[in-house]
């Protein structure tokens, strides 16, 4: 399961429209839809009901999106923690070892 597909599912749940959800990720609707279909195959459930007029979350979709939000928050938090630690490491002044200068 790809993190990007989880992001797409969350966006589709917010927009309830493939075209608008795809635009938010700067991709065309067809490849966006393929990501959603692949995710549905991976979990073995329909996540979204599609009609010609609307998109609706299924109960399985509601569960997946709720869990995906938690996973994505953790992933984003992890990425920020790593960036913060790298910034902090850059701010530590270099220490010179006295034994090396002899």
TrEMBL record:
Q: Which InterPro entries match?
A: LysR_HTH_N, WH-like_DNA-bd_sf, WH_DNA-bd_sf
Q: What GO molecular function annotations does the UniProt record carry, in alphabetical order?
A: DNA binding; DNA-binding transcription factor activity
Q: Name one Pfam family in it.
A: HTH_1
The reply to whether DNA-binding figures as a keyword in the UniProt entry is: yes
**Does this UniProt record's set of keywords contain Transcription?**
yes
Alphabetical keyword list? DNA-binding, Transcription, Transcription regulation
Cite a GO CC annotation: protein-DNA complex
Stored PANTHER family: HCA OPERON TRANSCRIPTIONAL ACTIVATOR HCAR, TRANSCRIPTIONAL DUAL REGULATOR HCAR-RELATED
| Name of this protein | DNA-binding transcriptional LysR family regulator
Q: What organism, scientifically named, is this protein from?
A: Nonomuraea thailandensis
């Amino acid at each position: 399961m790809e993190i990007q597909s989880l992001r797409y599912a969350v966006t589709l749940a917010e927009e309830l429209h493939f075209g608008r959800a795809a635009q938010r990720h700067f991709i065309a609707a067809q490849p966006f839809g393929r990501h959603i279909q692949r995710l549905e195959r991976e979990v073995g459930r329909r996540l979204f009901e599609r009609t010609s007029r609307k998109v609706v979350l299924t109960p399985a979709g509601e569960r997946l999106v709720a869990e995906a939000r938690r996973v994505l928050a953790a992933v984003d938090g992890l990425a920020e923690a790593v960036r913060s630690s790298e910034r902090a490491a850059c701010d530590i002044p270099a220490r010179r070892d006295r034994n090396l200068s002899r």
